Amino acid sequence: MKQTTIFCLLIFAGLMLRVEWRYDRSGIYSDEKLARGNIISADGMLYIYSDKGEIALVKPNPEKFETVSQSPITVGTEQHWAHPVIFKGVMYVRHEDSLLVYKIK
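and the corresponding structure tokens:
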């Protein structure tokens, strides 16, 4: 069975810490309704911008993949490959020629 790794790199004062979560294809850390994509974290939550054009708010839970809310991106064109940015409680998502702004705090 193929195993997938999600990891986070933390770099501070010249030191690097790698935190990993490993899982198999049994579905424990996956959601069939959400495609793979970019992940960013803020205020204890994960924000996922999927390759198929959806934004999902996910609660980190070692027991299961817990989607709190999910919404499609309905503006812009082409692929959904940009990485979201969070700054001062606002999430910015670029989709080709459009910039979406979400107040998350």
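(Above: one complete record from the training split.) Strands lie at 3-12, 15-24, 37-42, 45-50, 54-59, 66-72, 85-87, 90-95, 98-103.
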